[in-house]
Structures are given as C-alpha cells and as structure tokens.
Amino acid sequence: MKSEEAAGKRSRRQHDRTFKEDLVRQSLEPGASVSAIALRHGINANMLFKWRRELVQTDHVPAASTVLLPVAVVPPSEVVTVPAPIEPTTPAPCGVIEMEIADVLLRLRGAVDEASLCSVLRALRQTR
Predict the structure, then answer these.
(1) Interatomic CA distance for residues 27 and 32, integer angstroms
(2) What is the CA radius of gyration of the chain?
(3) Enclosing H/E stretch for 19
(4) Choice between 118 and 5, residue whose per-residue pLDDT is larger
C-alpha cells in the first residue's frame, strides 16, 4: 500500500523549459542523433521528439533552416537534349562463342558486345 507521503509526490520528473529547449536545439543540428542525445541526458527519445514538436510549433525553437537553390527558367526553344552517354563495356577475352539455333550455326569470334549479340539474335528469330 502507498503511504500518505508517497501519495503526495509526483511520479513524473519535471524538466524546466531551458533544459527542454537546449536538448531540442541539439537535436535539430545537422547529423544529430535524437536517440544519443536523449540517452546522454537520461530521457526517452520519444519524449525528446514530443518536445521538438511542441517547441517548433510554438516557435520557441526555430526549425531547421531551409536552403533555397537558384533556378533559371529556360524557354523550350533553348533546351538542348543531350543523349545519355554509352558506358563502355569491358570487352570479353578473345575466344569463340558457337550457338546452333534452328539449323543455323552462329559463330562469334573476339569481343562481342551485348547490343550486337541481341541484334543478331533478333534477326535470326525474324528469319524463322
């Protein structure tokens, strides 16, 4: 059973406003870990997130600053389309690939790139 003294005590800790604001400011720093800050100061991370919401909404602590990037609007006639660069493929070591497809013997020698092989196989399929 609870004694009368224990019944009159508060079971929750009370943190003053400056403590809360200081932790919230720390947590809003770029790269800051809310969990690490909360652990270091002996509070639950969820409590720190709650303080952040409350203090940012009431403007007691400024939210993280927003960075605006310069933008230029270009008329469509000045837009230049550049094709995507074709990444060079590493040539396969010299050798021979032989495939028999529908009574056709396909023999490939040397370095063969994927696009060329696909074109040849497509052409073979169309002739059948």
Answers:
(1) 5
(2) 34
(3) helix 17-27
(4) 118
